Amino acid sequence: MPLPQEPSIPGGTWGGEWSADAFRKELMDEQVRPEDDAWNNPWDPRGTELRDRPGSYSPPQSPMPPSPTSSFASTSPPNESASAPSSGRESRGSVKKSFNPFAKSSLDEFLIGPEKIPVTEKERIYIDDTENGPRWRPNPTEFTCSVSSPKKESKFHGMKSFIAYTIVPSETREERVRSERSCVSCRVSRVFSKQSVSRRRYKHFDWIHTHLTFKFPFLPIPPLPEKQISGRFEEDFIEYRMTMLQSWVERICRHPVLSQSETFHHFITCPNDEKMWKAGKRRAENDRLVGANIFQAIERPHKPLDILHVDATLDGFSTFLGRLDESVRLAQSTCLDQAKRYQMDFKREHDRVSFSFSKLSKAFETDPFNDGSGLSQALQEMSTAYEEIGTMYEMQPKHDWDPLSNLLFEYRGLIYSFSSVNSLLKDVLAKRRNAEKDAKEGRLEYDQLPHIINHSDTVAYAFEAELAHFQAVRTKDFNKAIASFLKGQISFYQKISDRLGTSLQKFIM
Amino acid sequence: MPLPQEPSIPGGTWGGEWSADAFRKELMDEQVRPEDDAWNNPWDPRGTELRDRPGSYSPPQSPMPPSPTSSFASTSPPNESASAPSSGRESRGSVKKSFNPFAKSSLDEFLIGPEKIPVTEKERIYIDDTENGPRWRPNPTEFTCSVSSPKKESKFHGMKSFIAYTIVPSETREERVRSERSCVSCRVSRVFSKQSVSRRRYKHFDWIHTHLTFKFPFLPIPPLPEKQISGRFEEDFIEYRMTMLQSWVERICRHPVLSQSETFHHFITCPNDEKMWKAGKRRAENDRLVGANIFQAIERPHKPLDILHVDATLDGFSTFLGRLDESVRLAQSTCLDQAKRYQMDFKREHDRVSFSFSKLSKAFETDPFNDGSGLSQALQEMSTAYEEIGTMYEMQPKHDWDPLSNLLFEYRGLIYSFSSVNSLLKDVLAKRRNAEKDAKEGRLEYDQLPHIINHSDTVAYAFEAELAHFQAVRTKDFNKAIASFLKGQISFYQKISDRLGTSLQKFIM
């Protein structure tokens, strides 16, 4: 018997637990709007487009700031914002899957009592009961993974070109990881070709991303950097995407559940062999522990959870996530804007100062009473210093604003993904409440209720374990990223000061 | 018999020895035009007027950049550019006097042989023949003078208000200066009132400026900061004007000829006694050694000068002065523009960065899983750091851009004044050439020629001595001003770096 639907809860949206609209409106009034604030520049023929920054690729922002009346769920996720239509479409596709990765009927089935699927020990996902609350059991074989050497490759006799990246799991544990974790279909040949290199295209990343999203509906899968059609072979873009893919892979590696996914191991270890790759892909496609079924693989503490406490946790976290989303958007917008100003406006201002001092130097050069005191040369040196400082401004964003912007961009995606995890728990809690009500009023047999409560607790346990993981990761991420940003800024201003010190020595005091 | 007029030389203009128009046009194409380049600022209701800078007074630029076809002599001197009409008028008056301080007939008279005026030893102006060429004999009693304590005073029972400044000659030599140099009319009372303070109003500065301009037509008298009607009691303006008057007085004190002027000594030493002040004023008005007559007071080497060499010197210097004028204008415009950007745009950008990090901090404050790692506090501290850096940008111009701008403003005036000195020599050389031609062709008696040549050499000697002085002073001025500017910039960037270093310590690395 299917569970009755609760009509008052909109499926899969985030519907206003926190006063999103008021908050967003308040923010909008003060928010940086790069398109309103371009510095007119009669010297510079380049426009004020964010993409126009020389020498670096900037991740796109949402093309329009969210309208004050839009609900949170309807704002664009980062990988929906690509300007190329087809890329936008593909990315939207993958996000949609992550948003409602399994049918409602499948969720209902799971809550009541699904068809049992055999779970091997390797497939089990453990939640430990720690003194701080439920936690994912750490991955016993932690590892990292590098994405490098982007190279243009082609197939069909050069008819189709693409960029492929080399994927290498961390060397220190490489052997152990490869022997213990690589998928069965790869293992045999691995033994004979340890040196074979894994090369992956963006479409492979897209495939593994879709798989993880489908398999782990209770986890916020970090979105990929968006696909791009035009300019995808440009050096800046390739480097930017490699950085983002590297960061994406690292984030999966750091996750205690995702990092143990056999399909992910297939993705990072399978050598360049079409047959082996397809075999692993087929295994993944035949995996029955996906969607609602994956909850059967979760081994969690037996203690039932207090539904009021779970509700409060969800509410508190939703409020926080809303605030974090707004502030991360604003901060990323500021990073992009500052990077642009460094490369355009600040550079131009220093060029102007340089030009003025150079003119002054040239005037003193024509001084017929030049006493050889070197004033003209000193002024020229000073002009060069300001020109160099202008160039320092131009090159600086890659040391501070760009990496910080990249992290914030990732977080915008993570936050968006988390909103679907929130929705899942919310749906489950609503169904549980309805079931309790129905049982009380005789519309549901009483012996079905413990199943439902038990299974809804599993979803809640997974949620709490993931919240704890997310908290630890974001504290580390932000501390590290901002410390690195500040170090970049400190050394930047120090370098300017030092450079001017060299100029000062040329003047007679 | 009056000298025949040479119609081909326009009286008192600079007429195109250097390719001013081409050079100016080239410069105009690249020049900073603050009015074209205002940064749009939706946050800031203030306009982009240069005068709008908060917390400081900026010297005005010429209201319009010179049109590419205007001749040098027709561009506005600094003290013509005041926006208040009456101030503009007054200033123009004083500049006009300096431009043609004595009638042509008086110059003719001097060249042929003027009425002898008795010159006392104290009134003599010596030009020494050094191995480097003609030089003013240094002032044996060098001194400086401070302008301080601007205070609003009034007379006619409060009907008329004005600002008066305290003038104090340098203490170390004060006694000697006062006893040896103070004017006769002041000396007696001085002995009895050593502590009496000299208070001077702007109109007194204006009077001494006019006197010096009239008395020493062969010297470029530095112009005064412009008179201002509206806002003249505002603190920023008063402080700015005091700085400029101080600098003006110092420049007179540093000049070997001007610093020995009895009237100038009267100006800096006469106590606040109406009777004594008027007595000194009357003496100055009765001074007959003014205008063309002052050349009678010049004692210079007997050796006649090579007119071709003098011509070449004048040409070379005119070219240099034109270049210097253009580059000083551009540099001053850049200083004003940068000061404005520091106080408006750079400050605003740092405020935005601060605001973004503050929002991020506030979001983390609402984190229900706050682990006490202090991320929110660290972000707030960082936000404060950027806010403080914004304020540092706002306050910085007074330590670097403003003082440099002030020096450049003074030089624009000096260069302008020098153009009338150039014109004087040019007129004299033309008259001498005509006289030589007339003598050859029998239109002038031959015994008049040596007088004319002798007296034109006196003007040329004075010119060369003044060029040498100007050269020494400007090398010192620019070295000092730019070194001071660079020191300001170096310590500024160092402070920013240090401030961010404090923030960095709050993050866990």
From TrEMBL, chains A, B:
<keyword id="KW-0968">Cytoplasmic vesicle</keyword>
<dbReference type="GO" id="GO:0006897">
    <property type="term" value="P:endocytosis"/>
</dbReference>
<dbReference type="Pfam" id="PF10456">
    <property type="entry name" value="BAR_3_WASP_bdg"/>
</dbReference>
<comment type="similarity">
    <text>Belongs to the sorting nexin family.</text>
</comment>
<dbReference type="GO" id="GO:0030659">
    <property type="term" value="C:cytoplasmic vesicle membrane"/>
</dbReference>
<dbReference type="Pfam" id="PF00787">
    <property type="entry name" value="PX"/>
</dbReference>
<keyword id="KW-0472">Membrane</keyword>
<dbReference type="InterPro" id="IPR027267">
    <property type="entry name" value="AH/BAR_dom_sf"/>
</dbReference>
<dbReference type="InterPro" id="IPR019497">
    <property type="entry name" value="Sorting_nexin_WASP-bd-dom"/>
</dbReference>
<dbReference type="InterPro" id="IPR036871">
    <property type="entry name" value="PX_dom_sf"/>
</dbReference>
<feature type="compositionally biased region" description="Low complexity">
    <location>
        <begin position="69"/>
        <end position="87"/>
    </location>
</feature>
<feature type="region of interest" description="Disordered">
    <location>
        <begin position="1"/>
        <end position="20"/>
    </location>
</feature>
<dbReference type="GO" id="GO:0005886">
    <property type="term" value="C:plasma membrane"/>
</dbReference>
<keyword id="KW-0728">SH3 domain</keyword>
<feature type="domain" description="PX">
    <location>
        <begin position="143"/>
        <end position="275"/>
    </location>
</feature>
<protein>
    <submittedName>
        <fullName>Sorting nexin-9</fullName>
    </submittedName>
</protein>
<dbReference type="InterPro" id="IPR001683">
    <property type="entry name" value="PX_dom"/>
</dbReference>
<feature type="region of interest" description="Disordered">
    <location>
        <begin position="26"/>
        <end position="97"/>
    </location>
</feature>
<dbReference type="GO" id="GO:0016197">
    <property type="term" value="P:endosomal transport"/>
</dbReference>
<dbReference type="GO" id="GO:0097320">
    <property type="term" value="P:plasma membrane tubulation"/>
</dbReference>
<feature type="compositionally biased region" description="Basic and acidic residues">
    <location>
        <begin position="26"/>
        <end position="36"/>
    </location>
</feature>
<dbReference type="GO" id="GO:0035091">
    <property type="term" value="F:phosphatidylinositol binding"/>
</dbReference>
